[in-house]
Backbone:
């Protein structure tokens, strides 16, 4: 499945806030999610859809629920 984030104030904005609050960089999260920085950057900027599996990984790294991301 794919999670689609819609609108300007989507869940990825919350993920960006979580990332900053936790002192994590996009590179840190990418390494922990076993993906590239570019891939996550494209998800953050809504240029690429996020799979459910990737959303789970991001949520785990950010210590939040998938619901908080979407």
Residues:
């Amino acid at each position: 499945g794919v999670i689609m984030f819609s609108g300007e104030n989507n869940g990825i904005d919350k993920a960006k806030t979580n990332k900053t609050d936790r002192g994590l960089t996009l590179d840190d999260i990418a390494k922990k999610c076993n993906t590239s920085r570019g891939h996550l950057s494209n998800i953050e900027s809504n240029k690429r859809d996020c799979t459910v599996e990737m959303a789970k990984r991001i949520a785990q790294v950010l210590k939040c629920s998938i619901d908080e991301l979407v």
